[in-house]
From TrEMBL:
One of its GO terms (molecular function) is acyltransferase activity, transferring groups other than amino-acyl groups. Gene3D superfamilies: 3.40.630.30. Residues 22-168 form the N-acetyltransferase domain. Keywords: Acyltransferase, Transferase. It comes from Streptomyces avermitilis. The keyword Transferase applies. Pfam families: Acetyltransf_1. This is N-acetyltransferase.
């Protein structure tokens, strides 16, 4: 399940490792501060930030029904993508993130592709995600990678947009039952 692109590697990482914890903090700080700056004109209250980070340790990204992937650029951990099964054939993409200083260097597409591979390995035929309206770069990335906007699949309070993508290649659907 390891993918390589020049300068980039993507591989599974325990959701509770120090590397995962540091990247979760960076991710959550950025998206929370962005929301508060947009809607309230200030950064996230530090006490609230600590409570929210602690409230979502990401245990749903642990095997057997989940996986956390860490992207490394030139060996340094710089991003994450998580996958968890929502149903027998549907996975959810979570925590897609690259540190600001590594964006624009070609890491997002292989990171999401590795997450899609991980979802397939979990048995998923479809992958879904949610995101916010102000995360325009994320929405553009998902559209570029073949995700289409869908009806909501959850009632996440901060979600404004929901996307989905088939993980089954044309011609693969229904072939599993034809063997033999």
């Amino acid at each position: 399940m390891m993918r390589t692109t020049p300068g980039w590697t993507v591989a599974p990482e325990p959701f509770d490792s120090p590397v995962a914890a540091a990247l979760w903090r960076a991710y959550y700080t950025e998206v929370s501060d962005r929301w508060y700056q947009l809607h309230e004109g200030h950064a996230t209250d530090p006490a609230e930030l600590e409570r929210e980070i602690a409230a979502d340790p990401g245990a749903y990204l642990a095997p057997p029904d989940g996986v956390l992937l860490v992207a490394r650029y030139e060996g340094e951990p710089v991003g994450t993508a998580g996958v968890r099964l929502l149903a027998a054939n549907t996975a959810e993409l979570k925590r897609v993130f690259l540190l600001k200083e590594t964006r624009g260097r070609g890491g997002a597409a292989p990171l999401v592709a590795a997450a899609e591979d991980a979802a397939r390995a979990l048995g998923a035929e479809r992958i879904v995600l949610d995101t916010r309206g102000d995360l325009v770069e994320a929405r553009a990335l998902y559209a570029r990678l073949g995700y289409a906007e869908t009806e909501p699949h959850n009632d996440e309070i901060y979600a404004d947009h929901w996307f989905g993508k088939s993980l089954v290649q044309a011609g693969q659907a229904g072939q599993a039952g034809q063997a033999g």
